[in-house]
Amino acid sequence: MAVQKTTVLVLDCAQPEELAEFYAGLLGGTAGLSNDPDYVEVSDGQGIRLAVHRDYGYAPPSWPKPEDSQQAHLRILVARGDMDEAEREAIGLGARPVDTKDNSGPRDTRTYSDPAGHSFTLAVSAD
To answer: Which pTM was predicted?
Structure first.
């Protein structure tokens, strides 16, 4: 029998409370301290689980510099008709545009960095 497991994506940063509030606002969830005071968890009650960890020596990713790899990013799926509004929400919450050309098609993908420098994309949902 397999042991039941739960996965949580963890982002490191210097100020986890602020970054967790950014993602809670972006994903329509809530942020709350975990049992460990260096972790803040974000949940939407529908399966999205994200944690933000305080790293006292944190240095933000340097991507999109050509010599650096992206390594990982969040891909947030949005209905085609909601892309512009999702972009306004993200920027209003503190996201910084990296590559936000409007593709206006099935592959409309817009890339941002969060307030701590992690990259994420808003992408048209296949549905």
So the answer is: 0.76
A 10 A CB-CB count for 3 gives 4
What is the strand order of the sheet 39-43 is part of? 9-13, 49-54, 39-43, 30-33
Answer whether 86's CB lies under 8 Å from 45's CB: no
Q: What is the DSSP letter of 86?
A: H
pLDDT at position 3: 47
Instruction: Tell me the one-letter amino acid at 60.
Output: P
Neighbours of 6 (CB within 10 A): 5
Asked if 112 and 96 touch (Cβ cutoff 8 Å), the reply is yes
Query: Could you report the per-residue pLDDT of 38-96, keeping only the tens digit for each?
Result: 889 999 888 778 989 999 988 887 766 666 655 667 888 888 888 889 999 999 999 99
Site of tokens 């549905």: 127
**Could you tell me the sign of the dihedral formed by the alpha carbons of 115, 24, 103, 106, in that order?**
positive
